[in-house]
From TrEMBL:
Signal peptide: none annotated. Gene3D superfamilies: Hotdog Thioesterase (3.10.129.10). InterPro entries: FAS1-like_DH_region, HotDog_dom_sf, Mitochondrial_HTD2. GO terms for molecular function: (3R)-hydroxyacyl-[acyl-carrier-protein] dehydratase activity. It comes from Neoroseomonas marina. Pfam families: FAS1_DH_region. It comes from the Bacteria. This is FAS1-like dehydratase domain-containing protein. Residues 62-136 form the FAS1-like dehydratase domain.
Amino acid sequence: MTGDLQSWVGRSRRVADEMATPLVRRMAALTDRTDVALDRGAPVPNHWLSILFDDAAPQSALGPDGHPAKGDFLPPVPLPRRMLGGRRLTYHAAPRVGDALERETAIAAITPKVGRSGAMIFVMLRHTITGPQGLVAVEEQDIAYLEAKRNAPAPPEKPAPVPAAEWRDAWAPDPVMLFRFSALAFNGHRIHYDADYTRDVEGYPGLVVNGSVSTLFLFEALLRRHPGAQIRSYEARTMQPVFCNRPAFLCGEAPDAEGQRALWVEKEDGAMAIRIRTRIG
């Protein structure tokens, strides 16, 4: 079956969107930002692009998990559970309020693997975002498809070593935060708002914090310490899910000799859930 999926590599599509004033205003409210101008043409934090370019699939075309059904643009991967495994992104220009933007997405690779919880298939997407200024951003995104939950728990994962933090902020993601972000991004994935589905079907103990939410609040914590700076590039890897209504910490370390720094979400048990290498400027 995975051999059949390789025929999907190279497929592409384009989606147009706009960095509209209401979206910028709502993102500022979600992140408690009072320093972002809403005037047309004003620069917007680079990383706020994460709320644009939703699939906007018709209701009749959604799968049982709230995502668009596979087999339209995304390949018909024969595994039911889906999560974001990692991403690599470089910004070339700051989006501006009112900018009309376009994203071209190509299926770059499809890779089967075996992990702690069984068979997995990774679909790598490559996004190229352009606007009135030309190239805005290029992103590679790894979507992981997993087997259905099993009664036996997955073998424990060796904890990732946690660096020494230069700063560490307490963070308590709650259902309202997840709902507001999902509404902004038009993300219908039920693991972020439907507790019964998340527990009974996907097998998680609670609502799962969207990886984009964790990334957003890590960047906001960093930029509070560097007013006026922008995220220039980053690489993110998801290692464990972060669950709603459980204590966590947003952490960061000092930049290395090349100007890159590590950011991470640390769970209450000390485990690292998501790790980011980023550069600001």
